[in-house]
Specification:
- The protein is α+β, with helices and mostly antiparallel strands.
- The chain has 2 domains: 151 residues, no CATH class; 160 residues, Histidine kinase-like ATPase, C-terminal domain (Heat Shock Protein 90).
- The protein has 9 helices and 9 strands.
- The strands form 3 sheets. The protein has a 5-stranded mixed sheet with strand order 4-6-7-9-8, with helices on one face. A two-stranded antiparallel sheet has the order 1-2.
- Helix 3 runs parallel beside helix 5, helix 5 packs antiparallel against helix 9 and helix 6 packs antiparallel against helix 7.
- This is Histidine kinase.
Length: 355
């Protein structure tokens, strides 16, 4: 928070406190104004000492003693202060009842008499006043500290999540680059004429990664184009592109998603679905209905790729990001058979947590 914002916040708080105290004092002084009597010295001392006690309790007693679990010290010191204030008021500021203080009673002959409150009650009023002041101060400060504590915990959790997501993304980027360069190297080794096209496709993907993926979300259409480019790059080195099926349908307009969330699924499918002869079988189906994304991908499991745990980052990266960003808004299932490996992800795009 900038310094000028802090100053504005403090100024607003001071103004709010001033207005509240002003309204309290004006309400308490109404009996004097209605009877056109002078406000006595006890009234002034009551509010000056009461306001002082409020802020002493608010800024020192509650945070330094009560919230530090020093309950008995807090109660002893608070009661001592209240007793001293009450003695001072009774001794040096004898209470003068405000005009018409008491209860008006209608007699049988139609006359109104004023029944004064008993002396004990009038002497107990100062103690009740200070107890009310400290109770209000304690409640407000306790709730304020609780709210600030929750906000700080939320901020710390947000920062931790952002740091973890940054780490996970940094894992994804070199992982993709390694796979892409490996594909281009394979083409170059074969002295294929497809190398220039592969480099152009790779440059488009790198541009997307450099300039788009630092944002908290990206447009779904751009993310899907990135996946299409990756698939096109893989097709350049495959011998049976007719076995690569990609079906995307639905309205992607204005839809957003976490960057690079789906690419690991696609990378794994091509890695484990391609044999040493460059023959692969990968089937991808993506459906967008309103704010729901249905992602389904299947690949053949080649004999020398039977252990999906050796997939580098594997699915753990994606699962971690899904749990961080789409809690209770995603469903991820995987199915492995003797020959096929299937991943099915259902995602509520509008339920992403903002970082």
């Amino acid at each position: 928070m900038r310094q000028d914002q802090i100053k504005n916040t403090n100024s607003n708080q001071i103004m709010i406190h001033f207005v509240i105290w002003f309204l309290f004092i004006m309400a308490a002084s109404l009996p004097f104004y209605e009877s056109k009597s002078n406000i006595n010295s006890d009234f002034y001392f009551q509010w000056i000492s009461g306001i002082g006690l409020f802020y002493l309790n608010f800024y020192y007693l509650v945070p330094k003693l009560l919230l530090q679990k020093r309950l008995w010290e807090y109660l002893l010191l608070l009661l001592s202060i209240i007793i001293v204030l009450v003695i001072v008021r009774i001794t040096f500021f004898p209470h003068e009842a405000p005009p018409d203080e008491g209860v008006k009673i209608m007699t049988t002959n139609g006359k109104t008499i004023l029944r004064r409150r008993p002396p004990f009650f009038r002497k107990a009023l100062p103690a009740l006043f200070y107890l009310f002041i400290t109770a209000g101060s304690t409640v407000i400060k306790t709730l304020s500290e609780f709210y600030n504590d929750q906000q700080n915990k939320l901020l710390a959790e947000t920062n931790r999540t952002a740091t973890e997501l940054t780490y996970l993304r940094k894992q994804t980027n070199p992982h993709f680059l390694f796979n892409a360069l490996n594909s281009i190297y394979s083409l170059a080794y074969q002295k294929s004429d497809k190398v220039p096209d592969a480099i152009v496709t790779l440059s488009e993907m790198m541009r997307y990664m450099l300039y788009e993926t630092d944002n908290s979300t990206v447009f779904l259409e751009k993310e899907l184009n990135y996946i299409k480019n990756y698939i096109d790059l893989q097709k350049l080195r495959l011998n049976n592109i007719e076995n690569i099926f990609v079906n995307i349908h639905g309205n992607t307009a204005d839809k957003q998603i976490e960057p690079l969330l789906l690419i690991d699924f696609v990378e794994n499918a091509f890695k484990y679905g391609t044999d040493y002869k460059g023959v692969a079988f990968v089937k991808i189906k993506i459906t967008i209905e309103e704010n729901n994304l249905d992602f389904w991908i299947e690949n053949k499991m080649q004999e020398f790729h039977k252990d999906p745990k050796n997939s580098g980052i594997g699915l753990s990266n994606i699962e971690s990001r899904l749990n961080l960003l789409y809690p209770n808004a995603h469903q991820l299932t995987t199915l492995e058979s003797d020959d096929n490996y299937t991943v099915h992800l259902k995602l509520k795009l509008d339920h992403i947590l903002k970082k």
